[in-house]
């Protein structure tokens, strides 16, 4: 199970967030901020027909996260939880996922709204967000976040995952 897997970025995220502190902790906490996904020229053909979608899932690499912790104290709680029950960046593979709204696509650039990612973050993949595919039809539970999920709109990051 220790087989290494390697990825090559398909592009880079550009945002107003130059440091880890004071960033929104989730896309829904940043409705006003816009960003740009710069796609490498080799992959531009893959953007064909993406303009028909309003939202995309952006999969990226937490390139400034060099620690791994299996238990963390997340931004929205004072209790410690397993890293897989959080969205903390200090995960074993440092992979992140954000759902953002497409503003427009020009050449190799996807202009997006609601970006919550550090400037310069490598993009691993992009997929269209399709509610009928991506939202389960059964009851959804959000565990320890049940009473806290609305706080995400006003909460910003600090240095706890440095």
UniProtKB/TrEMBL annotation:
InterPro entries: TrmO-like_N (IPR023370), YaeB-like (IPR040372), YaeB-like_sf (IPR036413), YaeB_N_sf (IPR036414). Signal peptide: none annotated. Pfam families: TrmO_N (PF01980). CDD domains: UPF0066. Keywords: S-adenosyl-L-methionine. SUPFAM superfamilies: YaeB-like. Residues 7-138 form the TsaA-like domain. NCBIfam families: tRNA_TsaA. Belongs to the tRNA methyltransferase O family. This is TsaA-like domain-containing protein.
């Amino acid at each position: 199970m220790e087989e290494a897997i390697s990825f090559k970025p398909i592009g880079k995220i550009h945002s107003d967030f130059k440091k880890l502190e004071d960033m929104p902790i989730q896309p829904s906490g940043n409705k006003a901020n816009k960003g740009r996904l710069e796609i490498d020229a080799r992959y531009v053909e893959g953007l064909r027909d993406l303009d028909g979608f309003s939202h995309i899932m952006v999969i990226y690499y937490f390139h400034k996260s060099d620690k791994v912790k299996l238990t963390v104290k997340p931004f929205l709680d004072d209790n410690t939880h397993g890293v897989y029950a959080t969205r903390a960046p200090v995960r074993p593979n440092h992979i992140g996922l954000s759902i953002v709204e497409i503003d427009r696509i020009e050449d190799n650039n996807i202009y997006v709204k609601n970006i919550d990612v550090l400037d310069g973050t490598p993009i691993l993949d992009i997929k269209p967000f399709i509610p009928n595919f991506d939202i389960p039809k059964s009851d959804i539970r959000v565990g320890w976040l049940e009473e806290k999920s609305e706080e995400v709109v006003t909460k910003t990051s600090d240095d706890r995952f440095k």
